[in-house]
Structure prediction request, 189 residues.
Amino acid sequence: MQVLGICGSPHTGGNTAFALRHALSVLAGEGIETEFISLADKRINPCKGCFHCRQGTCIQQDDDMPVILDAMLACDGLILASPVYMGMVTGQMKVMMDRTVIFRAGGRFALTGKIGAGIACGGFRNGGQELTLQNMQTFFLQQNMFAIADGPGYSHSGAAIVGRAAEDSVGLETVENLARHMARSLRGR
Ligand SMILES: Cc1cc2nc3c(=O)[nH]c(=O)nc-3n(C[C@H](O)[C@H](O)[C@H](O)COP(=O)(O)O)c2cc1C
Prediction:
């Protein structure tokens, strides 16, 4: 069993990376293999909308997206983590999401049945964490995946951080709950 975490922050050592690494460490403690990918050091071009992917391949092979697509295909669970930017996921995360359209192309839905969960880190309370999580959940549903939230004891929209992740004890509790919920969901499949 393997869980892939993708961090959509431009900072490799920021709040989002901290929260995602925290989730992955809880999963590792549950005996689940993990992989961490930061989009901060990746070059991902926007989708050109050419639908060449309907023929089975993307015309853009010269950036870092093929590595991410391979990692997504290999995982059983996917945690997307994004800072809140203008109330939504970052541009980096959205561009990455768009390029995964190849998984849907031609009706293949290659991510079918994988389990997805989201972590949103905002500077402020009510800064858009919920809509950011919904951006990710919509992505999971469009990929015919199962979307899960943070699960008990709070079970809201996913894990949400306010301000400095390392100092947000309640936020980190939602991150830990989400990781344990992911582990349970994977075992229950
Ligand atoms: C361009 C930009 C837009 C932002 N928009 C929001 C926002 O709408 N709501 C919010 O709560 N925080 C917002 N923030 C703050 C970040 O979400 C917050 O600092 C976050 O912890 C950064 O995560 P990182 O350290 O992983 O980069 C914004 C920051 C930037 C740079």
About this structure: The longest strand covers residues 115-122.
